[in-house]
């Protein structure tokens, strides 16, 4: 049986830890560099910046600088302030995990049309998450001649609680999103809804699995290295998947007209301004009407006015008047990664 507390085993684990950190840093730096065109589009004002992207950029750069700090701590040969360095690394790394959850919780709030019964509890859960994150930075580290920086004390109970909280938080976010998106009639689902559900499921599975692995090793607490060896992989996995989900939504475009029949109270993502976008007049939308002689396909037209929130649609025979909600308009309102809230 392996003696995890022996010096020989700790040395082997430390070597594996160093190689893993360098590999993860390379992976994240590659993902970071390959998506810089997204930032550049906002710098050059090709895309309009919206407030939910604050959490996206904060999460990306927190993990970016945390990984740089970890590499400095592992590779430096001259004495540095280990306490300050490790405190920063811990705070930035845990913040990246928290911000990844916030990115997905914002989508959930928007999917539920900013309902106070959803936004209020989620905000409370977010505050509780960050209370644990801030307590997790209370560690001690010092410089050891000949070895470099070493952590002398950490609270594994708080760290484990943080990751367990993250798993429960992610499960809550996914459940709320799935309830709104998945359990609808098949005819009411647009391409955007399907993408949101798919991205949310992928994020949940990846983040939950990574956080679960990190929590198991922290609770086992074999030694000081093995107890934290999967913390950074959990942060990297959560941040990469959450960031990709944000970028996919921001770049979302539909592939053509869809039939999305919803009630007047339903909306997709509700972070938007009070005004509707101006749409070119007389856009044809195919409609089907059941008649005794078979199914007749008619083309209905509608007009979107800037002053009024009305769609005026008439059948060709003038028998009835009905409103049509075009999914292209619905998707156009939300594909820019949430518009500004109405408050």
TrEMBL record:
Keyword line: Membrane, Transmembrane, Transmembrane helix
Signal peptide boundaries: none
UniProt feature coiled coil, ranges: none
Regions crossing the membrane: 20-41, 53-74, 86-106, 118-138, 158-179, 200-219, 225-246
Domain of life: Eukaryota
Region (Disordered): 306-343
Keyword Oxidoreductase among UniProt keywords: no
Name listed for the protein in its UniProt record: Transmembrane protein
């Amino acid at each position: 049986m392996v003696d995890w507390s022996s010096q020989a085993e700790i040395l082997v684990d430390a070597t594996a830890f160093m190689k893993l950190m360098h590999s993860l840093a390379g992976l994240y730096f590659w993902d970071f560099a390959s998506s810089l065109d997204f930032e550049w589009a906002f710098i050059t004002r090709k895309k309009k910046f919206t407030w939910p992207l604050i959490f996206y950029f904060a999460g990306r750069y927190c993990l970016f600088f945390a990984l740089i700090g970890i590499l400095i701590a592992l590779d430096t040969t001259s004495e540095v302030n280990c306490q300050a360095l490790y405190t920063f690394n811990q705070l930035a790394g845990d913040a990246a995990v928290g911000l990844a959850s916030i990115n997905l919780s914002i989508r959930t709030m928007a999917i539920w049309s900013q309902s106070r019964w959803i936004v209020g509890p989620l905000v409370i859960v977010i505050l509780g998450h960050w209370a644990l994150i801030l307590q997790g930075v209370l560690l001690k580290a010092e410089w050891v001649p000949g070895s470099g920086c070493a952590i002398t004390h950490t609270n594994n109970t708080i760290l484990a609680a943080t990751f367990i909280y993250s798993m429960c938080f992610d499960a809550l976010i996914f459940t709320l999103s799935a309830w709104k998106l998945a359990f609808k009639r098949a005819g009411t689902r647009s391409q955007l809804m399907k993408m949101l559900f798919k991205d949310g499921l992928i994020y949940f599975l990846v983040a939950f699995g990574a956080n679960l692995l990190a929590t198991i090793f922290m609770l086992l607490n074999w030694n000081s290295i093995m107890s934290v060896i999967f913390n950074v992989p959990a942060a990297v996995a959560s941040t990469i998947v959450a960031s990709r989900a944000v970028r996919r939504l921001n770049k979302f475009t539909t592939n053509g007209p869809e039939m999305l029949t919803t009630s007047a109270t339903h909306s997709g993502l509700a972070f938007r301004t009070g005004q509707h976008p101006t749409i070119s007049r007389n856009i044809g939308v195919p409609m089907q009407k059941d008649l005794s002689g078979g199914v007749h396909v008619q083309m209905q037209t509608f007009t979107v006015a800037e002053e009024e929130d009305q769609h005026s649609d008439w059948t060709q025979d003038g028998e009835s008047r009905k409103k049509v909600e075009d999914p292209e308009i619905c998707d156009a309102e939300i594909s820019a990664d949430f518009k500004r809230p109405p408050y």
